[in-house]
Every structure is written in structure tokens, then in C-alpha cells.
Design goal:
This protein has two helices and 14 strands. With 198 residues, the protein is mainly beta. The strands form two sheets. Strands 1, 9, 10, 11, 12, 13 and 14 form a seven-stranded mixed β-sheet that branches. Strands 6-7-2-3-4-5-8 form a seven-stranded mixed β-sheet, covered by helices on one side. Strand 4 and strand 5 (52-58) form a beta hairpin.
Length: 198
């Protein structure tokens, strides 16, 4: 499994061509909430006093999302800023502050950030959230692995109650949860709303 990273941690990460040229840095991560992926990045210039660039980087132009840089084949991968800005306006999903509600009607937390997997896919694999009493950890920071296409309606992220069986306390635990999910199991003590007591 590749490294997991909070989307907010990508801000300021350099954007570098395969030829080694730094062409900017990530200003904002734009999410495609419908498909559970990164849509692209708005960019800023490199350096302390640099402002936003007039170019953006759609995910299709990303060669790899690495631990230290976003890699692109060449500067030709950059597009007009509107190419990514349209996704930002239309996505309406996976936003910080959204409440996390199970399919049994139990609110289990509030999204603090989304967690993405390094590599070439740009997949959103989980959320960092502030938990509710329903999880037995009021306002603790916990991590929840997400299925393939999380459902967003307005300001609510809907998750199956069974997904709350495998809440993690850190990114390492989230990585283990994602691995278990990919292997077809969960491994937690029971879902909130299905007889589990907080």
C-alpha cells in the first residue's frame, strides 16, 4: 500500500516536472466528491512572496503524487485555472466540516480533512474526523476508511454503519483499515447502531 496523507498536508508541496523543473506549488486541493478522487490542484508560485498562478493542474496531468512532490511529465500538463476551478464549484462533496452520518441515522463525527493515497490514482481512501459520543470518543480525532464512492448529500457524508467497525486512531491504523477493506474484511468490534455501545 502507498503512503496515506491528509489533503491539507499537500498545500505548499512543490509541483515538479520529470525533467526536474519546479513549476509551482500546491495552493489548494480540489476534490471530485462524486468519484472520491482528487480533481486537481490550484497552484501558487514558488517562494515566500509568490501569489497564485494563472494555471492549474488537473489530476489527468499528474504523473505521481509523492511524499515530497507532485510530479508532472512537463509544464504542458498545466491548464487554464478555470479547468480545475469548475470542479471546485461543482464537486460539493467531501468538504471539511461535513457531518458523517451512518445509514442507520447515527452521526459519528465531523470531517476535519480527507485522506488521499500517494501514487497515480489520487484516490480519497478515508476521512480524518472529530468523533461524537456515538463512537465513545467525543471530539477525539479518529480516522475512518471509505468505500469506493462515498455518498455526499449537501453537507453530509453518508457511510454504512458497518464501516464504523474499524475506526483508527492515526494514519497507520487507517492504512491497516484500508488494507483489510481491500482484502474483503473489516475486523472491528461492531458497528454503531447495531448493538455496539460507545
Amino acid at each position: 500500500m502507498r503512503e496515506l496523507m491528509p489533503a491539507a498536508g499537500l498545500t505548499g508541496r512543490p509541483v515538479v516536472t520529470l525533467g526536474g523543473e519546479a513549476v509551482g506549488q500546491v495552493k489548494d486541493v480540489v476534490l471530485d466528491g462524486t468519484n472520491g478522487r482528487i480533481a486537481g490542484f490550484t497552484l501558487a508560485g514558488r517562494g515566500l512572496f509568490s501569489g497564485p498562478l494563472r494555471k492549474s493542474l488537473p489530476w489527468a496531468g499528474v504523473h505521481a503524487l509523492g511524499a515530497d512532490a507532485v510530479m508532472i511529465a512537463s509544464e504542458e500538463a498545466l491548464e487554464n485555472k478555470a479547468a480545475v476551478a469548475g470542479w471546485e464549484e461543482a464537486s460539493g462533496g467531501l468538504v471539511r466540516g461535513a457531518r458523517v452520518l451512518t445509514d442507520l441515522g447515527v452521526q459519528v463525527g465531523t470531517v476535519r480533512d480527507v485522506v488521499v493515497e500517494a501514487g497515480a490514482e489520487g484516490a480519497v481512501v478515508g476521512v480524518e474526523m472529530s468523533s461524537t459520543e456515538a463512537l465513545g470518543h467525543h471530539e477525539a480525532t479518529v480516522f475512518l476508511a471509505l468505500g469506493g464512492h462515498p455518498a455526499m448529500t449537501g453537507d453530509t457524508l453518508m457511510v454504512p454503519a458497518r464501516d464504523t467497525e474499524d475506526i483508527a486512531g492515526d494514519l497507520t491504523g487507517l492504512a491497516a483499515s484500508v488494507r483489510r477493506r481491500r482484502l474483503g474484511g473489516t475486523g472491528g468490534p461492531g458497528a454503531v447502531g447495531e448493538g455496539r455501545t460507545p
